[in-house]
């Protein structure tokens, strides 16, 4: 089966003169109906990767190099108009903060109907009908009445359901979910995740799930890609990467998640902070925080492939190190 | 809504009362109208007769009580200068000022809003920078100077537009309006533009600031992620959020346009209320001053209420009664 999305050597830069690379040489691919967990700390470039695919980078950000092949079309070469027709129709996005993503002065109905009409030349009545059905689908009670309500009349979880309903309106091939549950209560989080999973599975929609929460990734994703300082450092199936990490950074991330198996031990954390992309060390970006770093790490390691997985490290961990 | 309206009316009543006291005391401190109003050649008997006629022989507090008594019967007192009811004098001049203020406001919105929108959407274009620099000029050039320059260029040098007065007027709803005739419109153009200059800059800068505030919001990004056309995003998503601060300022500024159109009316000899009030202050014509200021208080209270009503229409998160 061919890939639905293939990102090849994507480079996204901010600032024309400085050429700050928020995303540097990132490649991954995604099949129809599969879920990719894109993981990293704040500032690692995972959201920017999502916005690069959507063509929604804020100025002065721009895709400087690489190809984004979506169903055979290179998105980076599309005109603004062509990209607009794709957005919302075949590639949809769900954002982090449901309090901020809905326009406060427009009704839910208006915001849904306009999304339908943006791509399908149907009557307003039909659009309204479809919006109502979509609301019902994501579990919003009495959808007909809720259409004329404003965002502030909804709770956070309900708003995220509305956002998901909007993303699903056109049955897209790909949904980019940028930390869609981070701003929600834990109980609501769980509901939204299962709801989202159910709906995307039903419609065979591929998902890029951007998050810093490994627990969520292990639950929703088929594959995982770990980003650090704009680069992919490890990639592979969830089972392989989380169960048997190669890159010390991935290992560090896993160790900093509280676990039943290590009760009573102090939680291990990765020392130091993610360096700013303007002041990255030469060579491996992680070497200043890595306890396995040697002189060899002063050169940027390539992604090394090893049966169905890849990692960017000269001193990979093995099961014995864990 | 009704409760809120009643509360405001009561508040307005108190403001009006306080204001009348201030005017009575204030005018009596500035000077004695008698010195200005009565012909210096008049004999003593004539003087005393006139002072008694105006009620100026009474102590101030008694004059004030008499004034309040008149108010109860809808009588604002007679002008010292014209000998006619003060309210009638003002209402006669009201349409002229109203017409000027509305024209200025329209110009301000029609010119300021699109330019501000453009400058906000494309902040780095040279044309935007020129617009913004222009708005600084509009802000800082004094109205009287611009007015004089306009007269000099368009009337004196080019002979395109007349210098003063309202020109020919036509009747609508029982009131004379200039904008209904070609000649009147020509007379209206310069003063309206002069009065509008400052407000245009204000609307322009507010709009630009609003656009720059709304654009980075997540809901705009989400709207783009839905694949909406730019036109819809700008004219529905951005503009509707923009209207909230804009309506407040425009509403309040309309009040100030009416209340402070004095300078423009003086330069262009526009027969409006502004000119009347300046003349009245010079002549210490207390009844006219009081009546005028009372009208202004009512105007501002009414405008504020209207703005609040607009708020509830524009912003679903605001409900008037909830503020109680």
UniProtKB/TrEMBL annotation, chain A:
Listed Pfam families: ABC_tran (PF00005), oligo_HPY (PF08352)
GO cellular component annotations of the record: plasma membrane
Domain ABC transporter, chain residue ranges per copy: 5-254
Keywords: ATP-binding, Cell membrane, Membrane, Nucleotide-binding, Transport
Presence of keyword Signal: no
GO biological process, one term: peptide transport
CDD domains: ABC_NikE_OppD_transporters
SUPFAM superfamilies hit by this protein: P-loop containing nucleoside triphosphate hydrolases
A molecular function GO annotation: ATP binding
Domain of life: Bacteria
Topology versus the membrane: Peripheral membrane protein
Protein localization: Cell inner membrane
Family the entry assigns: Belongs to the ABC transporter superfamily.
UniProt name for this protein: Methionine ABC transporter ATP-binding protein
Lineage: Bacteria, Pseudomonadati, Pseudomonadota, Alphaproteobacteria, Hyphomicrobiales
TrEMBL record, chain B:
Name of the protein in its database record: ABC transporter permease
Keywords: Cell membrane, Membrane, Transmembrane, Transmembrane helix, Transport
ABC transmembrane type-1 domain ranges (all copies): 94-307
Family of this protein: Belongs to the binding-protein-dependent transport system permease family.
Membrane topology of the entry: Multi-pass membrane protein
Lineage: Bacteria, Pseudomonadati, Pseudomonadota, Alphaproteobacteria, Hyphomicrobiales
One GO term of the biological process aspect: transmembrane transport
Location(s) in or outside the cell: Cell membrane
GO cellular component terms given for this protein: plasma membrane
Transmembrane stretches, start-end: 12-31, 100-118, 130-155, 175-198, 242-269, 289-314
InterPro entries with a match to the protein in the record: BPD_transp_1_N, MetI-like, MetI-like_sf
Chief localisation class: membrane
């Amino acid at each position: 089966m061919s890939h639905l999305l293939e990102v090849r050597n994507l480079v996204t830069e901010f600032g024309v003169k400085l050429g700050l690379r928020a995303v540097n040489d990132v490649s991954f691919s995604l099949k129809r109906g599969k879920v990719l967990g894109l993981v990293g700390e704040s500032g690692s470039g995972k959201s920017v990767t999502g916005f690069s695919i959507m063509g929604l980078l804020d100025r002065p950000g721009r895709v400087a190099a690489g190809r984004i092949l979506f169903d055979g079309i290179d998105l980076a070469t599309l005109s603004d108009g062509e990209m607009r027709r794709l957005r919302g129709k075949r590639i949809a996005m769900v954002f982090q903060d449901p309090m901020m993503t809905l326009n406060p002065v427009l009704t839910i109905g208006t915001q849904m109907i306009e999304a339908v009409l943006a791509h399908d030349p149907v009557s307003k009545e039909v659009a309204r009908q479809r919006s109502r059905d979509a609301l019902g689908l994501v579990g919003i009670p009495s959808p007909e009445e809720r259409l004329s309500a404003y965002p502030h009349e909804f709770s956070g979880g309900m708003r995220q359901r509305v956002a998901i309903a909007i993303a699903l309106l056109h049955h897209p091939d790909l949904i980019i979910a940028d930390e869609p549950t981070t701003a929600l209560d834990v109980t609501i989080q769980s509901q939204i995740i299962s709801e989202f999973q159910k709906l995307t599975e039903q419609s065979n929609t591929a998902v890029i799930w951007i998050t810093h929460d490994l627990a969520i990734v292990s639950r929703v994703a088929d594959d995982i890609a770990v980003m650090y300082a704009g680069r992919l450092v490890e990639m592979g199936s969830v089972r392989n990467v989380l169960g048997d990490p190669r890159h010390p950074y991935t290992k560090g991330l896993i160790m900093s998640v509280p676990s039943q198996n290590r009760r009573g031990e102090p939680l291990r954390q990765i020392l130091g902070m993610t360096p700013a992309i303007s002041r990255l060390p030469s060579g491996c970006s992680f070497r200043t925080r890595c306890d396995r770093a040697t002189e060899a790490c002063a050169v940027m390691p390539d992604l090394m492939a090893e049966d169905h997985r890849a990692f960017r490290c000269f001193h990979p961990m093995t099961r014995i190190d864990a | 809504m009704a409760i809120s309206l009643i509360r405001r009316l009561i508040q307005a009543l108190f403001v009006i009362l306080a204001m009348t006291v201030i005017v009575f005391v204030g005018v009596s401190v500035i000077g004695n109208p008698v010195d200005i109003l009565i012909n210096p050649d008049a004999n003593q008997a004539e003087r005393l007769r006139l002072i008694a006629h105006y009620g100026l022989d009474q102590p101030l507090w008694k004059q004030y009580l008499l004034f309040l008594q008149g108010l109860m019967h809808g009588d604002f007192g007679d002008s010292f200068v014209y000998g006619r009811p003060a309210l009638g004098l003002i209402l006669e001049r009201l349409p002229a000022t109203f017409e000027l203020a509305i024209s200025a406001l329209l110009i301000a919105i029609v010119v300021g809003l699109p330019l501000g929108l453009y400058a906000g959407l494309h902040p780095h274009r040279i044309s935007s920078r020129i617009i913004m620099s222009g708005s600084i000029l509009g802000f800082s050039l004094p109205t009287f100077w611009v007015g004089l320059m306009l007269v000099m260029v368009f009337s004196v040098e080019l002979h395109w537009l007349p210098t003063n007065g309202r020109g020919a007027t036509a009747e609508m709803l029982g009131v004379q309006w200039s904008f209904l005739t070609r000649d009147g419109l020509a007379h209206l153009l310069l003063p309206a533009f002069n009065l509008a200059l400052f407000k245009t800059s204000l609307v322009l800068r507010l709009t630009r600031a609003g656009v720059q505030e709304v654009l980075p919001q997540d809901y705009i990004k989400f709207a783009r992620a839905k694949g909406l056309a730019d036109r819809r995003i700008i004219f529905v998503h951005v503009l509707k959020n923009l209207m909230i601060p804009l309506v407040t300022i425009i509403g309040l500024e309309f009040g100030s346009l009416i209340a402070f159109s004095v300078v423009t009316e003086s330069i262009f000899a526009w027969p409006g209320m502004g000119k009347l009030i300046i003349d009245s202050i010079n002549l210490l014509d207390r009844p006219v001053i009081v009546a005028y200021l009372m009208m202004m208080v009512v105007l501002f209270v009414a405008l504020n209420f209207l703005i609040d009503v607009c708020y509830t229409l524009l912003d679903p998160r605001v409900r008037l009664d909830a503020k109680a």
